[in-house]
Design a protein that fits this description.
The chain has helices at 14-27, 57-66, 80-85, 87-107, 142-161, 187-197, 216-228, 249-259, 272-277, 286-292, 300-317; strands at residues 6-9, 32-36, 48-51, 71-74, 112-114, 117-118, 165-166, 168-170, 172-174, 200-203, 211-215, 240-241, 245-247, 264-267. It is α/β, with parallel strands linked by helices and 318 residues long. It binds serine (SER). Serine is lined by residues 79-80, 118-120, 143, 170, 172, 183-185.
Length: 318
């Protein structure tokens, strides 16, 4: 088998930092080049790292050529809430960054490309419960519009240029190793930090706002399972629905209270409520299960226990 050389773009982000470590385990640290617009922090700095602005096509192309890259994980993007504050830049980064990567894949015959889509590609008239793979998609945020358009671009490059591009529509991703990054689902990350530091949390969504969510370990597993699957098993070249769990702020607060009885949550919905209300409440991921064997491992109870057991230790080291 040809030696694999992996490029991760946006490696400093919430998903990127954990996925990079998953790739180290799979391919060896020396074969993974992590990049970001910002300098590496923490564990990321112990591996190969370079500064890369994916919008600079020549920088990207040079890096791919020099390192003989065979796979790209392109994760750099502006998330939903931040994107609404700077829509033109969110569109520029999310779209032109992806197209630069797809062009590099054609130019340098990159073997596989990974790019994440999101539940944000759905919209208010999408069926909200067990949202099917193929359905109405009318995203209302610039982030969601860029994800929907990105899905179309991926499928187009697959059909017209044979690029082996693969994608998942992530639910809200919950991890504790990096701080939240401007998403609407990120209340469910922040809540753990505040539960430990202040024993209270003010939530920007209403108590009964159900959203599809996934623990970071499951997200890394889903991504690597998809990328390791034989090409003939990948039937969907836009982006696969994947589900982990589904909960609302009142439910995660109750789960945290089981570990921290004095924890209190209050509610003060802001502009992010409308974003959350436009998204599905739960996802039907049967295609991912059938095509490449997807199966999540974490529910709300297991995730909460794992985070509250490990986060205090991590907070002591930073
Ligand atoms: N987690 C993202 C957000 O809230 C959705 O993909 O923006």
């Amino acid at each position: 088998m040809k030696k694999q050389r992996i490029l991760v773009i946006g490696a400093g982000g919430q998903l990127g930092s954990e996925l990079t470590q998953g790739l180290w385990n799979l391919y060896g640290k020396e074969n993974v080049m992590a990049t970001d617009v910002k300098d590496a922090e923490g564990v990321l700095a112990t591996g190969n790292f370079e500064i890369l602005d994916v919008l600079q096509q020549d920088q990207l192309f040079n890096l791919v050529r020099k390192n003989q890259i065979t796979q790209v994980y392109h994760l750099a993007a502006i998330l939903s809430a931040t994107g609404e504050k700077n829509p033109k830049f969110a569109w520029h980064l999310n779209m032109d960054g992806l197209i630069n990567v797809l062009d590099a894949a054609v130019e340098y015959k990159i073997e596989k490309v990974y790019w994440p889509s999101s539940i944000a590609a759905f919209g208010p008239t999408t069926p909200k419960i067990k949202t099917p793979q193929h359905t109405v998609m009318d995203p209302t945020t610039i982030y969601g519009i860029s994800k929907q358009a990105g899905e179309r671009w991926c499928e187009w490059y697959f059909k017209n240029h044979g690029v082996d591009v693969r994608s998942l529509r992530y639910p809200g991703l919950i991890g504790y190793k990096t701080k939240p990054g401007g998403g609407t689902t990120d209340y469910a990350v922040d809540i753990f930090f505040k539960a430990l530091s202040d024993k209270k949390f003010e939530c920007f969504l209403k108590p009964d706002t159900y959203l599809p969510m996934m623990y970071m370990d499951d997200a890394v597993k889903a991504t690597l399972d998809l990328m390791e699957a034989p090409a003939e098993k990948i039937k969907i070249r836009s982006s696969y629905n994947v589900a982990g769990m589904s909960f609302c702020p009142a439910e995660i607060a109750a789960e945290i209270k089981k570990h921290i009885p004095e924890f209190e949550i209050t509610y003060h919905p802001d502009f992010r409520q409308a974003i959350a209300d436009s998204w599905p409440k739960s996802i039907n991921d049967s295609e991912a299960r059938i095509d490449w064997g997807w199966e999540p491992q974490f529910d709300l109870t297991r995730m909460t226990k794992e985070i509250l057991e490990n986060l205090p230790q991590l907070l002591q080291t930073i």
